[in-house]
TrEMBL record:
GO terms for biological process: polysaccharide biosynthetic process. The chain crosses the membrane at residues 16-37, 43-67, 79-104, 116-137, 176-194, 230-252, 259-288, 294-314, 321-339, 345-364, 376-397, 432-452, 464-482, 488-508, 520-538. Keywords: Membrane, Transmembrane, Transmembrane helix. It is a multi-pass membrane protein. Residues 146-170 are annotated as: Disordered. Residues 18-138 form the GtrA/DPMS transmembrane domain. It is found in: Membrane. Pfam families: GtrA_DPMS_TM. The lineage of its organism: Bacteria, Pseudomonadati, Pseudomonadota, Alphaproteobacteria, Hyphomicrobiales. Coiled coil: none annotated. This is GtrA/DPMS transmembrane domain-containing protein. It comes from the Bacteria. One of its GO terms (cellular component) is membrane.
Length: 727
């Protein structure tokens, strides 16, 4: 049969008219939502509600009415593509509207009319680009129409083969594209809401230690650290490649979180379906948004490695010949240990324990032992190939005693006593920390139900895979939860929360199709999955709208001329970065010291007292761009409050001829129910500072001290954003 393919039409007029009509309807819905919410809440919240309402209306109407894609089988993929096109259209609207309204029409019209005209032109271009984006990409209605030649049978459609006949490579390509879109959307959202405020302690540790690594210093040998070297090395590399860009470092952090979201989608899309996968991603995104005040925390790369390793072990446990996969999983555990030593260990234990359980359930006793031995050897080899070379390189230049002190001796003796927090009550706001162990327990119960009675013949492949995922990710969740049980808080159990989302999505998928009791359990799991992060993130997102100057989106708007910078913003930045915001007193002190010190000079960031310590503003080393003058620059209760450590600090200050000290009296002790709220009675460091240094400038409760034998360096002029000199 001869088939004549009609010429393709770039635009379908009827379809385009329907698309414009749905756009107008969605706009009306947007405005209605803004009007309703503005009567009961803030204007910023109303705009957010309007955007969400308009987006949902636009997607549903364009799908069902404009492009007539009535099937919901692939709605999740269409929603992702729609979001990408929608975002691209918004960018086009802004760029075209701004350019035309500011630079083209002002030559022809008054400014108010030119700006209005620019908005209309931008809207028109956005409408056209969005239509073609949806026609060619989202719904793919651009296809040739086929007709039979005269004398032949009925026309034959030139549409692609049914989805079930698609090749495996096509499915993998589409899955990879969808995961990449998820990661991109997560990156954009988290990036725009990225807080500009610098974490004076937690983030400061990473930034200052990266400076020390970049200067050739070795972790543990040259400076105290409770983390491994990987995060410091990566951040140092980013700073070196970007000329010290704070924004680049933060975007690296956002990228890690976006990769976690993409991995969650990639894992869950086939196991739990698109909607539940997106729900799990939404929960992860909300946790990341709520805890955005803890950037650069080394657990974020560990999340990536943990998800990859555990997912690889699913295949390694199901396939008798999957030893290469197990070795790759072991390599991930070895890499995780270079970020956080204990995380790598817990990941190794969880993966090998889970593999042992699964192999024991699936194989005869003798065969199980041989298979498991092979898995252990392969996994251990992969771990060793990554971790042991780094350990050997360290031992060539540093004594093992330094590592032992920082990671083993101090942690076992003092961390629980000085940093420990009690478990919250389940109904308290912090009760969300119980989500991970609860879901992990339910996951193991469901895995046991699949396997009951013990050692029966293997079920179908889908059931075997579901059981493997439940066992491995539940054990990973429980082992990671152990890392956070000393200092119980949302950020410290977040490492366990992420794999728990995988378990929760699979449980919901399995139970939603059951009887009433399993369905009720599925609903409870879904509420526990999305409820705590939504509540926790609500206040953080509300802060972003009530204090928009603190997020990156506001800076982008300022640079684009869409809003003016607040007057006090200039005194929250330093000469190093206009993106990073510090408390004004800290920024002024940093600017004062930076203008009066040599680039190769070391400084000391201290407190107003050192017999009782909670944290110190380590980030000021990064703000001033000066290296610390002591091995013990990061303060922890139980360490810098000891006489031997304070004596070592005094010796370092003398040996390094440290002239400048920033003493911070604003780092209030929160009086937590642990040893950090008790005085050690050791005042050796305070006595030395009082005897050897004098205050020369101050801003609020942050003072700048100078060695008594030194004179204050003269500068051309006193900046208004510097600490005030003390006469």
């Amino acid at each position: 049969m001869i088939v004549d393919v009609a010429p393709r039409q770039a635009i379908d007029i009827r379809e385009f008219v329907r698309f414009v009509g749905t756009g107008v309807t969605a706009t009306i819905g947007n405005l209605a939502a803004v009007w309703i919410v503005a009567r009961h809440g803030s204007f910023g919240l109303a705009l957010l509600a309007g955007s969400i309402a308009g987006f949902i209306l636009s997607f549903v109407l364009s799908k069902l009415v404009a492009f007539r894609a009535r099937s919901w089988d692939r709605a999740w993929a269409e929603a992702l593509r729609f979001t990408l096109v929608h975002g691209a259209g918004a960018v086009v609207y802004w760029v075209v509207g701004f350019a035309v309204g500011r630079y083209v029409l002002p030559h022809l019209l008054d400014r108010p009319l030119s700006e209005l005209g620019g908005a209309f032109v931008g809207a028109g271009v956005m409408t056209a680009t969005s239509y073609f984006g949806h026609r060619f990409f989202t719904y793919r209605t651009y296809a040739p129409r086929s007709r039979a030649q005269p004398g032949t049978t009925a026309p034959v459609s030139a549409s692609p083969a049914p989805s079930g006949e698609r090749s495996a490579s096509a499915r993998h390509s589409e899955d990879a594209t969808s995961a990449a879109l998820v990661g991109l959307l997560a990156f954009v959202g988290l990036g725009l809401l990225m807080p500009r405020g610098v974490g004076l302690f937690d983030e400061g540790i990473i930034l200052s230690d990266a400076m020390r690594v970049a200067a050739g210093e070795v972790v543990h040998r040259d400076f105290y650290s409770s983390y491994g070297p990987a995060q410091y090395t990566i951040v140092a590399a980013v700073l070196g490649l970007t000329d010290g860009s704070f924004l680049a470092v933060r975007l690296y952090d956002v990228a890690c979180k976006a990769v976690v979201c993409a991995l969650l989608f990639s894992i869950l899309r086939g196991l739990a379906g698109g909607p539940l996968a997106l729900l799990a991603i939404a929960a992860a995104w909300l946790w990341f948004a709520a805890l955005a005040v803890f950037p650069l925390y080394p657990i974020y790369p560990c999340m990536i490695l943990g998800l990859v390793a555990t997912w690889l072990m699913v295949g390694g446990s199901l396939r008798p010949g999957g030893l290469r996969v197990c070795a790759a999983a072991g390599a991930c555990a070895g890499a995780a240990a270079l970020f956080r030593y204990e995380v790598g260990f817990f990941l190794l234990v969880a993966n090998l324990l889970g593999a042992g359980v699964l192999i024991g359930l699936d194989a005869a006793r003798g065969g199980a032992a041989r298979r498991y031995a092979g898995v252990v050897v392969a996994y251990g080899l992969g771990t060793s190939l990554v971790f042991l070379p780094a350990a050997a390189a360290y031992l060539l230049v540093a004594p093992v005693g330094s590592f032992w002190h920082d990671i083993v001796e101090f942690s076992t003796k003092y961390y629980a006593e000085m940093r420990g927090l009690p478990f919250p009550r389940p109904w308290e706001p912090k009760g969300g920390v119980y989500f991970a162990p609860l879901i992990a327990g339910l996951g193991l119960v469901e895995a046991g139900r699949i396997s009951w009675p013990a050692r029966r013949p293997r079920r179908d492949e889908a059931e075997a895979r579901a059981r493997a995922v439940l066992v491995l990710f539940s054990l990973c969740t429980l082992l990671f939860f152990l890392k956070g049980i000393v200092r119980v808080s949302a950020i410290h159990v977040l490492l366990a929360t992420i794999p728990a989302l995988v378990v929760a999505a699979i449980l919901a998928r399995r139970w939603l199709g059951g009887s009433r009791l399993p369905q009720a359990g599925a609903i409870l799991v879904l509420l526990l999955t999305i409820g705590p992060p939504a509540v926790f993130a609500a206040s953080k997102l509300r802060d972003a709208f009530t204090s928009p100057d603190n997020v990156l989106a506001s800076l982008i708007a300022e640079r684009a001329g869409l809003r003016s910078a607040p007057g006090e913003a200039a005194c929250r930045t330093t000469s190093r970065s206009t993106v990073a915001l510090y408390p004004p007193d800290h920024a002024r002190a940093a600017n004062y010291v930076a203008r009066r010190t040599r680039p190769d000079e070391r400084i000391f960031v201290a407190l107003d007292r050192h017999d009782m310590i909670f944290t110190n503003p380590v980030a000021l080393y990064f703000a001033v761009e000066r290296l610390p003058g002591t091995h013990w620059h990061q303060f922890d209760p139980g360490l810098q409050t000891r006489a031997d450590t304070q004596a070592a600090i005094v010796a370092d200050l003398q040996d390094n001829r440290v002239r400048w000290v920033i003493r911070d009296g604003s780092m209030e002790n929160p009086n937590e129910p642990n040893g950090s709220s008790r005085s050690s009675g050791v005042t050796l460091l305070d006595e030395f500072l009082d005897a050897s240094y004098r205050p020369v400038a101050s801003s609020g409760r942050v003072a700048v001290w100078l060695l008594k034998s030194e004179a204050v360096s003269s500068v051309d002029h006193q900046s208004p954003c510097e600490a005030t000199a003390i006469d």
